[in-house]
Structure formats: structure tokens, C-alpha cells
Amino acid sequence: MTVQHMKWWGWGVDGVAFSHDDKPSLAPFVQKVIDVDLNAPAVAPLAFEELDVPKSQLTEDLEKALSGVLGAEYVVSTDLDRVVHAFGKSLRDLVRIRASDLRRIPDVVVYPADEEQIVAVLDAVVAADAVLIPFGGGSNIAGSLEAPADETRQVVSLDLGRLNKVLSIDEESGLAQIQAGALGPDLEKQLGERGWTLGHFPDSFTHSSLGGWIATRSSGMQSDKYGDIADITKALRVVQPGRTLATRAVPVTSTGPSVREMILGSEGRLGVITEATVQVHRKPAKRVVLGYFFPDWKRGVAAMRAIAASDAAPSITRISDARETSFSFATRKTSKGFSKFMSSALVAVLKKRGWDLEQMCLSFIGYEGSEEHVARQRKLVKKIVSDHGGIGVGEGPGALYDQKKFDTPYIRDFLLDRGALADVSETSAAWSKLMPLYDTTVERANKAFAQLGVKGWIMCHLSHSYHSGACLYFTFAFKAGEGDPIAQYDVVKSAVQQAFIDSAGTLSHHHAVGTEHSRWLGDDISEAGVQMVSGIFSVVDPGRNLNPGKIVQ
């Protein structure tokens, strides 16, 4: 088969990894902020042969039924395939899998070729009273792919990797019909060959699928221009027990509660998404990402708010707080990248302006469109940046951003190999709530580090701007102490998530609910909302055969 998977023990494919050898400032920085020695020997993951892989519970009857639909070649129950499909790529997932804590993994992995085969697979699963879990790229970090630990029924992982084609493009309407298993690079390549782009580039872009984006309500780095996946998705086809749901690709509709919206973010609980019709755009004539500095976080965030309220329409509005800015400086390569725009001359200018360089914040703002459009947007943004005390530093930082934008998960794995626990949490809130939310989250995280008796680090960037508010994306890290690393991680993760809820933020902006965030769902959408969601799941899937336990129990 041509379906490729990430490595079972970490992010990405074998042979690709993060290195600090050409980043001389990183090791001292990490030693200072979380007391981890990057030059110490790394702890390698277990060899696959050392894992205690539970035996498959696949019955002869179900195997025969699945093979009759797909052919024996596409019904796979090897230990490696089952382990690869057992988890996503959250810190919790990686710590457990490296410790051979596998619990309930799929009994079989199936690879259908089309919707007709998916219908037959789901029929066979329901008839056997088994469990079916859809699988796209395996990049989820919210627990959306894991079977319940106490699940006694057979578990089937349905890998959509063979459904990877752009089926058609309505060039007059800018609508593309795409199979749900298409990974980001595959669909962009197929669209790009005809001059189009989806414009959706999440951090997980390289290893995530269209169906996964829809099932988790994904956002991309350029969502300021193209919209989140909820805005991009215009129609869906979804295989459910005994039927297939289909919506029409219309720009707007008034047909009662939105069925399309119900499928968005449903994490496989309402069926298997087989294809979607999505809004696509002509590839822009010009694209540029520029770097800007602001004297502090408060003024930088205010500038992003002013841009969102203005006539400017950039594709990216991102700003890092002072902590994340210092981390970015620490990851620079020798005599390249940041050294060019952090020259002694620029430092002298900033100091002359009275800037405290330890409070300085780095921003990336992107522009796309015709030459004239980009020029006008840059002019509008330049004035807003200047009004808020910021300065432009050219294309160098933007080029570096483009080079590194998909590398963050590799850094997390690199740190984990050296005894550091690092993870992310993101939220969104109204502009009026954003700064108090930020302050509360940093304060709660630092209290959690103190509770654990560890030296910890939390940093943040504003990643997406909207008219009424923005997304804040936090990254935290600390050195694991003695004892259970998951229990230590839970102390910090829970503190951060509770800070979101207590500060009028949402439990997640784009990483989904899964099992990781489900305990806060009632606080976010109210208990009445939870009951409504549970009711919809029960009607569509009365036998709880579709990815049970996700979002709500």
C-alpha cells in the first residue's frame, strides 16, 4: 500500500528530527529556564520489539466480513499497524507509548478505497457490535483517536489514507470536491497544479487530513484571510449506520439547525466523513511575511486588535510574548536568520528609543494577493504598527517563519528525549478578556510549577485575529521529576485549562475536545449544551459503535 504513517513513538517520519547543533544559544537558554541539559545523552525510545502489545481480539467472523468487502490485503492486524493507529501525538500519548502503556489498542486496521467500501465496513462493524474509529493522519493531540480503556468490544481503526484525491473543481464557483483522507501536502499539490489553493495550513499540515481538520474544527496559520475550516467547508458526505448523510454546496442556507455545523468538530461520533466540498482560491500573485518588533506584549496585542478592526486584511497576524520571543532568538542559527535583523545597529536604535529588550515582542504579519493589494495592505499595517510603537524589520524574519512553521512538534520530541515535558494549550476570547486571561494563565501555570517543585516555562503567541477577539496559543515546559510524568503533566495542563474557563475563554480554539478537554465542556457550553450534544450522538449512533467516549461520555 502507498499509505504512509508517522513513526509510532513520535512526530513525523523516520530520519527527520530536530537538532540544536547549529543553534548555539539554545542549550544555555533551556538550561536556564527549565534546568535541562541538552548536551546530556538522550534517552532513546524503546525498540518496537520491547513493547508489550496486547493481542488482537479480532474474531474470525468479523475478519472474514471485512476481507470480503476490502480484500485481505487491506485488512491488517500486525502489531505495528495496530500501535500506530492506537494514539494521536499528544504528550500524554507519547509518554504512554514509550512506556509500553498501551491498554486498549485497535484489533484491526482497515484501508477502504472509496465511500461504497466504507458503507460496507460500517455495516459489518455495527452487525458485529464492534467499535469503529476513523483515522486520518494521526496528528490529533486531544485523545480523539484512542479507544476507551475499558472497551470490551472489537475495535476497528478505519484509515482513510487511500481516499486522497481532489475529485473535481468548479472553477466558476471556486469549489473543490476532495476526498477526506487527503493529507495537506497532497491536496495542495493537486490543487496547485491547477492554480488553486485551499489556504489551510495548520501546524500539523504535513501529517493531517482534510477529514481530520473537519472532524476537529481546525484552524490554519492563514485563517485570518481564508477562514477556519468551518468557514472553508461548504458541503459534506458522511457515512452513518444504515445511511449516508449529504449536504449541498451552497453559499448560505436557511434550513433549520445546521447539519453541516453538527458534523464539524464531531470527531467521528456522527459518522465517517468521506468527502467535502470546500472553498478554494486562486494562488496569489504575491505572498510575503514580514517581521515586526513591538516594545512590549500589551502594545503588540493592541496593534493586532487595531488591525482586525481596520480596513487591512492580512493573511497572518501573529505576535509572540516576550518569553516566546526570547525562545525564538535562542533557536537562531549561527550568523543567519535573526542575526541579520538583530544587528548591533538595530539594538542601538531600540535602546535609544528606550526599549527594554527583555520585554520586546516579535510579530509576523503576512500579505497575499496582487502586487497592488499587498502594497496597500502593507501601508495600512505599517501605520497601525507605528501608532503602537512598533517597527518593521523586513522579510528576513518572515522567511525564517516560513522555514520553521511546521517544526514545533519535532522540538517537543527532542525535549522529551532529554527528560522535559512540553505541550501546548490554546483558547480564544473576546479582546476585552484577552489580557486578563493571559495574565491569569501565566500565573496559574507558574503556581503549578511551584506546586511540583520544578523550574517551568510558559510562553504564548496570539495566532489568529477576529473582529471580536483572538486565539492565544500557550506552550509550557518543565523538567520531569521523580514519579509519574503524566500525573505531573496533569497538574500543569489542568491549571492552564482551568485558567481559560475561569477567564471567559473557550476550552480549545482548534485542537478539539477529545478526551483531553471533555471535563471542561459543561463549563464551556453549559450542561444543557452537553445534554443536547449527547442526544444527537445517541440518535445517530444508538449502539455507540462510532468512536465512543469522545467529546462526551
Can you walk me through this structure?
Keywords: FAD, Flavoprotein. It comes from Kribbella yunnanensis. By secondary structure, the protein is α+β, with helices and mostly antiparallel strands. The chain is 37% helix and 20% strand. The strands form four sheets. Strands 15-12-14-13-17-18-16 form a seven-stranded antiparallel sheet, with helices on both faces. It has a five-stranded antiparallel sheet with strand order 5-6-10-8-9. Strands 1-2-4-3 form a four-stranded mixed sheet. A hairpin with a 3-residue loop joins strand 17 and strand 18. Helix 2 packs antiparallel against helix 5, helix 11 (297-309) crosses helix 15 and helix 18 (431-452) runs antiparallel to helix 19. The two termini are 35 Å apart. The mean pLDDT is 95.
Supply the helix-strand structural class: alpha+beta
Give the C-alpha Rg.
23 Å
Overall body shape: globular
Low-confidence stretches: none
Mean pLDDT: 95
Described by strand count, sense and barrel closure, the largest sheet is: 7 strands, antiparallel
**Alpha-carbon distance between the termini?**
35 Å
Number of strands: 18
Number of helices: 20
Which percent bin holds the helix content? 25-40%
The strands making up the biggest β-sheet line up spatially as 15-12-14-13-17-18-16
Proportion of β residues? 15-25%
